[in-house]
Protein 1
Amino acid sequence: AQSVTQPDIHITVSEGASLELRCNYSYGATPYLFWYVQSPGQGLQLLLKYFSGDTLVQGIKGFEAEFKRSQSSFNLRKPSVHWSDAAEYFCAVGARAGGSQGNLIFGKGTKLSVKP
Amino acid sequence: ETGVTQTPRHLVMGMTNKKSLKCEQHLGHNAMYWYKQSAKKPLELMFVYSLEERVENNSVPSRFSPECPNSSHLFLHLHTLQPEDSALYLCASSQLRTSGGADTQYFGPGTRLTVL
């Protein structure tokens, strides 16, 4: 079955420290890959996406993610976390073709807290 | 207005009320989605509309009734809801690829629904 796993429910990092959020997927073929961020009471905002090409993808707010086909992973990273990065982060996958109607499969999310 | 807008942002209703949630997308997309997000469950896809046709209904109770009068507007009509229906309801839109594959979904800010 198709699925997305974000193994960390909650992560706390100190401001200025580096961050890595994990995402693993189970899919029939290499899917399109996405990271979204959600601030409390808000909708989801796209951080970055991978469709093809360079497996290291740059996004907004200084985030990047690396697609590793051999590990079925798409981990999100940031070298130095800011207090404003505190939010919930969702990894998602979508089919490259077929009658999926554009559906995305979302992970359960990782909540990030930032210590001053 | 740009992006995806949702009204109202907050709604409190009794179990016998009838209300509607509205979503409007200003992106020229051809697919729209309703999601439910509650504290205890991950993001749940409720309905998908592609080219104004409902193409997916994920076993959603009949007390939720979607309507898509045109490609820019999506409604969720609510009646005789239960307290467990209290959640954040998110609308999203995307542009379906000719291959049928996924593309970025753009989310509205959501409607926080409380059922008393």
Note: The longest strand of chain A covers residues 87-94.
Protein 2
Amino acid sequence: QVTLKESGPVLVKPTETLTLTCTVSGFSLDNARMGVSWIRQPPGKALEWLAHIFSNDAESYTPSLKSRLTISRDTSKSQVVLTMTNVAPVDTATYYCARTPRPTPLASLYFGMDVWGQGTTVTVS
Amino acid sequence: DIVMTQSPLSLPVTLGEPASISCRSSQSLQHTNGFNYLDWYLQRPGQSPQLLVYLGSNRASGVPDRFSGSGSGTDFTLKISRVEAEDVGVYYCMQALQTSLLTFGGGTKVEIK
């Protein structure tokens, strides 16, 4: 069974650095076909994709936050970590991680973000 | 960036009746392989999003067949043939063609009349 679980602080002060961890099970972060995305959702608002990382350490970030985000993975711990620097109240949100298929021209290998974590809620205040 | 626009914003539905949600992209989502990289997700109240449809029309594992996705290029539709109480929530479309910048629509809230 594939599961992802987010963890991190509930409350962070403005200007601090936020560190979130996604612990996965049921699949390997070395799997060439898949990786992990981080997505956030401010209260009452829509989903926003933040970043993703794959087994070859290829990373992508949403441009509006690229200067503040770093995504990394620790395969020995089955964890993907997202750090966000200089947080502000607008970063208050529920943060999700989700299994993500690696980009490929082979449509047969694309399966959507098929498993999501339960989310972790972060308040910046 | 590929901008995703959903309509309507809110959709009151009657149990047992059909429902339809529209999603438009600012650029074609059709890959050179011929497939459309468009997903649909449902976020039930208080829950994480779940995948319903990928590649425009492929139902994810375990998704009831009353859900169907269609469309190509820039215009896509998610249809529910007969709405059930458990279908209440917010539906999001997401483009996966631009792999370095995935983008979601603003969401459509489905509620029972």
Note: The longest strand of chain B covers residues 19-25.
